[in-house]
Amino acid sequence: MQVERSVYREDHETFRTTVRRFLERECVPQQAEWDRDGQVSREVWLKAGREGLLCTTLPTEYGGGGGDFGHAAIIAEEIAHAGVGGLSIGLHSDIVAPYIHRLGTEAQKRKWLPGICRGEQILAVAITEPGGGSDVKSLRTTAVRDGDDYLINGSKTFISNGFLSDLVVVVCKTDPAAGAKGVSLVVVETDRPGFRRGRKLDKVGMRAQDTAELFFDNIRVPVANRLGEEGKGFAYLMQELPQERFMIAVSAATKLERLLQQTLDYVKDRRAFDQTVWDFQNTKFKLADIKAQSVALRTMVDHYLAAHMSRRLTVEEAAIAKLFATETLWKCIDDMVQLHGGYGYMLEYPIARAFVDMRVSRIYGGTSEVMRDLISRKL
User: Fold this and answer.
1) Under 8 Å CB-to-CB from 207, ≥6 apart: which residues?
2) CA 319 centroid distance within chain
3) CA 177 to CA 167: how far, in whole Å?
4) Nearest in space to 105 (alpha carbons), one of 235, 195, 223, 234
5) Which residue out of 77, 129, 244, 317 is catalytically annotated?
6) CA 363 to the chain's CA centroid
7) How far apart are CA 305 and CA 181, in angstroms?
8) Alpha helix locations (H) across the chain?
9) Beta carbons of 317 and 304 less than 8 angstroms apart
10) 244 is catalytic
11) CA 100 to CA 161: how far, in whole Å?
12) pLDDT tens-digit profile, the chain (379 residues)
């Protein structure tokens, strides 16, 4: 169902084959078990590390793949294509690890990145707080200086990799009176006294992705664990959030293509009133609309993908990509569920799984309303 693509090189496509085989071998057969457990296994992280699928854009001197964003995008596409849920490689490798690589001291990078690249230390980032939502400036978790340490107090919620994480980049206030200029990023090891995981959150979908509440009760963390300068955390977040948002768009484009093909297969096989569902004009027109939207989304995403591979993607463009991708995907999923009839509501069908899993794409990484606000600032 894909349009002809020219954004990837031959080495990218060779890597795609490696990723697809890994997912088919190590993830797809385990999906039902992961859904029941509410998290993936640690073993799959170690296997992904050995296969070279973690931190593909980090330099080889720290254990990374030495590749570019194209390699990261291929992993996102193949996870979406395979329908694998819960294995948050993109969060670990392309959202959290870059904070450590770009902001960390040489000592921090050599201390943490090799284990991260091997899958021995799983990453999370703790931004959202109860009652805070997308408003980063109003967060209440504090890190108070005490000699060579910070004492961290507060709580976070909706934290992906919350239960499996070994290192958490905590967004906290080092100067509560300074607003956005008082925000800092501190790496917290989850085996420190005072760190506690709350309940594993019972989500509508994405059952295999462990999402948790995290609590910080007078955790003593060395000042040496701070990433970058004190008070610059909000600016650092704004630099990295566009890539997180664009990754969501990358996944959405592939997910839509895959679901469209699966829906076509279904309606051409399913019979009703002495003909296939495909034979009804309504079905053909609905799927023609979805194909047009899928091609438009793919064309946009590949255009912005080429820009981001040369680090030219702007905050506004990332917001446009995420808004259009997730809103388009959701509308099309709803239409495709309808074409499946009652079977579209059964979780054994990929379209039903997508219905519960993909709704959150319009919320996480910044809600559609936040994306519209960012876009409107440039109008």
Assistant:
1) 34, 35, 38, 85, 86
2) 15
3) 27
4) 223
5) 244
6) 12
7) 31
8) 10-22, 31-37, 42-50, 69-82, 89-90, 97-103, 106-118, 233-269, 281-309, 315-340, 350-357, 368-376
9) yes
10) yes
11) 17
12) 567 899 999 999 999 999 999 999 999 999 999 999 999 999 999 999 999 999 999 999 999 999 999 999 999 999 999 999 999 999 999 999 999 999 999 999 999 999 999 999 999 999 999 977 667 777 999 999 999 999 999 999 999 999 999 999 999 999 998 988 999 999 999 999 999 999 889 999 999 999 999 999 999 999 999 999 999 999 999 988 899 999 999 999 999 999 999 999 999 999 999 999 999 999 999 999 999 999 999 999 999 999 999 999 999 999 999 999 999 999 999 999 999 999 999 999 999 999 999 999 999 999 999 999 999 999 9
Residue with tokens 């990799």: 161
Tell me how far apart the alpha carbons of residues 22 and 3 are, in angstroms, rounded to a whole number: 25
Amino acid at position 264, single letter: L
State both tokens at 325: 């991708």
